[in-house]
Structure formats: C-alpha cells, structure tokens
Amino acid sequence: MNRIIAFLPLVAIALSSCSAPVDDADSPASVSAAQVPAPLVQKADSQDVADHGCLVVLRQVQRSPGPTGYEIQCTSERCWFVWSGTIDVARSLVEQGATVGLMYQVGMGEWWEVPAEATESDDGPMQSFAFRFFDHAVDTSLSLTALAQARVQVIPVVHLPGGGRLFDHNRVSSDLDNYVLNYGNDWSVNDDDSVCTVGAPTASTLEFLAGWKHVQHGTIVEGGTLTIQYDLARLPDCRGTHNGYPAWDTTAFARFMPMGELHQGSVRAFESNQGIPTTKAHGIPITFDVPKGATSVQLWFRNASGAGMSCETWDSNLEANYVFAVQRFAPSPVKWAGDWGNGFSRECEHRDGIEEPTVIDSWIMQRACMFVDADVYVPGLTDVDADPAGIVAQVNYGFDDQDPVAGWLTYQGRVGNNYRYRWELPRDVLQQSSWDKITYRFRFSTDGLNWYTIGQAQGPEGGDARTLLRSF
C-alpha cells in the first residue's frame, strides 16, 4: 500500500495516515523491479553502449511528493521511499521498437530496473517517458546515520531491437559513471534545459551527381553545417561567354523551413591559365549554416548564361525542389568498425579478410573487380535498420609520399547489426598514374567531425595505414 511520510533534514517521520492499497497490477506504483546485469559499456564483447548524442537523456528524478511529505511504498515486511521522473528518448528509436527503462543500484548492491511508460507529447523528435521506482531502494527504517550515508545510482536505458542496451551519458560524461542520488543533492536530479535541447555541432554533405542521383552523407542537424557538392554536368546548357571569357554561373539555393530562410551561392569555378580564366569549369562545394529551429531544407539549382543573356535552366526536381529533413540531434557515435573484406576477384563478391599488404598485379588490373570493404556498428542506427544517410563513411588514401585525400565509401547493406561500406578502387587512375604504393584508412562518423578510424589496428585511432603495392 501507499503511505506518505515527511522527510525533513536528518529526520524521517512516518505519518499514520495511508492511502488505499494499490490493486491495479499494471499501475506504475505496483510494478516490481527486476534484477538486471550492470552496465558494461566498456567491455569489448558487450552490446552496451554509452550515448553522448542525445538519443536518451534523463530530464529529472526526485522523491515523489505527497500531501504532507514524501510517498512511500510498503510490501508485507518493509517500506521504501518512492522516486519518480521522466526520460526523453529519440522518437526514431521508439518507432523502431525500442523500449525504455530506469536502472538503479543502492550502494554496492545489485542493479535493478523498472520500465518507463510513454507519456503524451507532441510530434517532436523526442518522446517522453515516465518512471517510478522504490523496490530495493532506500528503506524508510534506516537510521539517521545510515540514511545520510546512503547512495543511489540511476541511469536511463534504452533496449534496442537488435538486442543492445543504450545508456544515457549526456550529462554524466564518463562512460563508467552514473547519476547519483544522495542526501547532499536532496535525492534528486533537476532538469537542465541546456542539455539535449540544441544539438552539438555537426557537418553533413549532400552530393548531386550526374545521372540525376543524389547521396546524403550524415544527418542534417539544426545548428550544424550542410555542404553541397554539385556535378555541373546536370545543367550543361546556357553557358554563355563574353569576349571569349566565360560569363555563366551555376547557383545553389537552400531554403530552410518553416522559417523560409533562404541562402544561395555559386557552385562552379573555372580553371585558370596564369591567372586568366579558361572556359573549362569544375564544381566547387558550398557550405550553408543550418539555422536553429529548422525542420527541413529545400534545395534547387539554376544555370544562367550571364552577360545580359536571358538563357537559364533549372534543376529543381520537376519544380518540387529537393527536400531533406533537418533533425535536432545527430545519431549516437560510432561504437565499432572493422571486419575488413575485399573483392579482388572475377566473381566480384565480398570475401572476408584482406592481405596486408595487398599486391595489385596485372591479372587483377585486367580481369578482376577491385574493392575493399568494412563494417560499422552504430547503436540505435545500424541495429534497427535506420537510414544509412546518418553515417558519414570515407576512405583516406594517398599515393606514395603524397598527402592523403578523402573519398566517399558506398553503402552496401546490413550485415547482422552492422552496415557494410565499400571503396571501389579508381581503376583508371591506377592505370594512368605512376605509383608504387597506396596507403589507406577507413573512417566513420555520425556528426562529420568526430571520427572512428580503422587501419592495420582497431579503432578509434586505427594505427598504421593499410597498403596496396603495385606489381604491373
């Protein structure tokens, strides 16, 4: 049954009045805690992951108040203080079947968990959950000394459809620490509106390729940046000149909704000959700041002849514009990448593993496919079959002693709870260039700024680069 007690500094007073017993077995007050394994976020073979990307965050927890004090819950032999609070969870995880709970531990005892129930909320990116716990928490019969020394650790947990557990470490930065309730903080954690209300900086990219294809690399996040890479072959007409010099330009337009904020800029440049522009053009990236509060971005492109000519052409998805969602937060960081594979064969199929170094001979150059691939795991994304656009996947490679350059990896599909990405070696470049050795590493990110790199060693640093040796 429920009772209410007053809990004054260093004094616990049990009131004689009590409420009616709770008969509804499904009510939050009657849900018993289940004993569960402790968080194991840094154990190599564990599926436990620390979230620093605002996928799950504790908003607040405190002792549940009553008319004249604090609520307690009694079993047949003992009475416990009752705590209640709320957790915010990314709606995308909830829609994919994730469940939410609150884990807690008293002193050095066992870990316990109670389920959290979804509450009514708007259609924003986060879904709120409410929880209550008391069982195996703080006994109301403790002495004043024992009560002053008591310590309760709590941590929100999301159970992912793929079997992993995602723990909130957005305010508790260390992966080994938890929220603490004790006498010093009045047994509570208050909401902090500076935490997980505005996303951390991010950098995403949209490629608009020839053949009317486009590829997204990374979640577009409010407050971050969005870079556009545009292939000028998409708009080949209306390229006027003036006195033999190019006058035309290709402009990218970005309108952020719902505010309608419009940005624009050129995505073309001309090669020069000793400072004099030629008529040979190439695309250049343009970067826009994503305003806070944006929920989507509309993109379109115009090519105009210039020099007083009226010719212009448009790339606007048949006047509907290219529309992409803007999120409040990026996905959880990459936890793991590895399981190298290759396709140096005529079958052009993935084969596990890759030799180090890998020798490229004339048979491979003339008769075989040439690709390298690897897998990546992002909790709450790869294990729930979410949009692969949330991952930025790149290869950094360099010829001989030259500085490495970055290239995009292509998404191949889901393998278990991981996504697989591939690097198609540039056959024409390898044939036409003079080189002896290529060094390369793969790197993955969910915010475009912090990278998980793999080479000859495991991530996140990756150790020495892997190598390709020429033998043709």
Query: Into how many domains do the coordinates divide?
Result: 3
Count the helices. How many? Answer: 4
Backbone CA Rg = 29 Å
The overall pLDDT, averaged over residues, is: 89
Fraction of helical residues: under 10%
Rough shape?
Answer: globular
Query: Which CATH architecture of the largest domain?
Result: Sandwich
By secondary-structure content and strand pairing, the structural class works out as mainly beta
CATH topology of the largest domain: Immunoglobulin-like
Runs in which pLDDT lies below 50 for 5 or more consecutive residues are 1-29
Distance separating the two termini: 82 Å
Number of strands: 39
Under CATH at level 1, the class of the largest domain stands as Mainly Beta
The CATH superfamily of the largest domain is Carbohydrate binding type-21 domain
Q: Describe the sheet with the most strands.
A: 7 strands, mixed
Beta-strand percentage range: over 45%
Structure description:
The protein folds into 3 domains: 184 residues, Carbohydrate binding type-21 domain (Immunoglobulin-like); 123 residues, Immunoglobulin-like, CATH 2.60.40; 136 residues, Immunoglobulins (Immunoglobulin-like). The chain has 4 helices and 39 strands. The strands form 9 sheets. Strands 3, 4, 9, 10, 13, 14 and 15 form a 7-stranded mixed beta sheet that branches. The longest helix has 6 residues. The chain is globular, with a radius of gyration of 29 Å. The N terminus is likely disordered.
